[in-house]
Structure formats: structure tokens, C-alpha cells
Design a protein that fits this description.
about 260 residues; 4-stranded mixed β-sheet; 7 helices; 12 strands; disordered C terminus
């Protein structure tokens, strides 16, 4: 299980939905609590799903309205199925997007994980201490004048007394760079690092640049110590080009850098 930070324009509607029909909502989650952050005193809603994942919902500004997945509407029965459209369809949402996704990593590896993303993907990274634990921050999207990125992957070190569960195949999908050239450079770097990987469950069996161009994505699973090549932890990454058909932002051509 991991932690997912969600940003909302307002928590009011979410509170109402959680409080309105708790017996029905138990079909979708184990429990929820409402609290305040110790430092900022800002309110949050903590929801635990049936897999043990924790969703931390907070209010915040718009992340980027140009890069948002379309909502499922009640009129989308033909494309997503009548049950899904009826159950989840809506015309608007207070949720503005994902702030961060947090994973536990082995003790004394946060700095090495940050170095991996920096070295292989030229990501902006840092390592901070939080609650006496080392946390690697991997930044995504533009970074504001205060040094805050729009989204993060977080890797928080587990204590030696809390062994990590075996990897169960969960994965993340990420979009790379500003154009086709950035994506192809990312693939070249991953290939050089020896981490390009094929998940046999899916048809995108990418092992070379031609495959990456064909599917506009590639995968890797091993986060490694770049100094030794030793695997630190496993987490499947689906690395996509912004020319991928599922890209939620404006369409680009191969030579467009913006």
C-alpha cells in the first residue's frame, strides 16, 4: 500500500458525500477521518481503501487545467459501460489532480533513489528529512518560485524494524519531457542503464528505439544504485511520450518544443 495526495478546490463536497451515505460508501473504502496538518493547520481528509492505500485530500490551487484527464460523464455509457457511467459519472469535480504518490523504500536508500532519477532521467530531485525519516522527492512539471513542483513521486525510507512487503506488481504511468526528442533521450538513458523491461501482460514489448517509437512508451521496473547496478527496489514505470494517444494535454507534433 502507498499514499496518494489529492488536491481539491474545496473539501466541502467530499465531506458531504462521505457523511451522506456511509453504509453505501463502505463498499469503496475502509474508513475516513478528518483532521488538521500539525504545521500548517490546514484541514485534510484521510481515506483508506480496501487495499490499504491512503488518500490524503487537501485544498489547494489548480495544478494545471491544460493537463487533466476528462471526467466520466453520465452520458458516457456507450464508451465506459452503463454501470460505470451511472455510478461515477459527473459533470464537474472539485478534485484538481494528484499532488504526489508516496512509496516506502528500503532503509538508507533515499539518496540513491534520488540519484537514479537524476542520473537516468535528468529529474529535479532532493532528499529531505520528515518525521525523522529520509524522503526522496522526485519532481514533475514546472517548479514555482518557491521551489515547489506541480507533482512528486516520494520515496520514504522504512525503518529496519518494518520490513517491506514483497512487490505486488503495482505501477505508475508518467509522461516524459516536452517533445519526441526528450522521450527518445529518456529511452536511450534507460537502455544505457540496463533497466528497460517488458511486461508480458501487455502488447507493448519495447526493447529498442523502434518499439519505443511505435508504442510511444516503454517500461522499466528496477530502480538501481547507479554506482553499483544493484537493484534498490521494484516499481513498474510506464514511461510515455507526450505524443502518446492517452496524453491529457494539448497535442504536439514531433518538432514542437512547447
Amino acid at each position: 500500500p502507498g499514499k496518494i495526495g489529492l488536491r481539491y478546490s474545496s473539501l466541502h463536497g467530499l465531506k458531504q458525500r462521505l457523511e451522506k451515505e456511509p453504509s453505501q460508501d463502505k463498499e469503496y473504502f475502509q474508513e475516513y477521518t478528518i483532521g488538521k496538518d500539525a504545521q500548517s493547520q490546514n484541514e485534510y481528509i484521510r481515506i483508506v481503501d480496501h487495499y490499504g492505500n491512503v488518500f490524503l485530500c487537501r485544498e489547494g490551487p489548480e495544478i494545471n487545467p491544460r493537463f487533466q484527464q476528462p471526467l466520466v460523464s453520465t452520458e458516457d455509457a456507450e464508451s465506459v459501460g452503463e454501470e460505470t457511467a451511472t455510478k461515477y459519472g459527473r459533470s464537474a469535480s472539485e478534485c484538481r489532480g494528484i499532488d504526489y504518490v508516496e512509496f516506502r523504500c528500503p532503509p538508507k536508500t533515499a539518496a540513491k533513489i534520488a540519484q537514479f532519477y537524476d542520473s537516468v532521467f535528468d529529474a529535479t530531485t532532493s532528499v529531505v528529512e520528515s518525521n525523522e525519516e529520509q524522503v526522496a522527492l522526485i519532481a514533475f512539471g514546472p517548479i514555482d518560485e518557491n521551489g515547489r513542483a506541480q507533482q512528486y513521486l516520494l520515496f520514504r525510507e522504512a525503518s529496519p524494524q518494518q520490513p517491506l512487503p514483497p512487490y505486488d506488481g503495482h505501477h505508475v504511468a508518467l509522461y516524459v519531457g516536452y517533445n519526441q526528442a526528450d522521450f527518445e533521450q529518456a529511452f536511450a538513458n534507460a537502455k544505457l542503464a540496463g533497466v528497460v523491461w517488458v511486461n508480458k501482460r501487455f502488447r507493448d514489448d519495447v526493447t529498442d528505439i523502434n518499439g519505443a517509437r511505435k508504442y510511444q512508451q516503454f517500461r522499466f521496473k528496477d530502480i538501481i544504485d547507479v554506482a553499483t547496478g544493484k537493484v534498490i527496489m521494484e516499481l513498474e514505470h510506464e514511461m510515455r511520450c507526450i505524443n502518446h494517444s492517452a496524453w491529457p494535454g494539448p497535442k504536439h507534433n514531433e518538432n514542437n518544443d512547447t
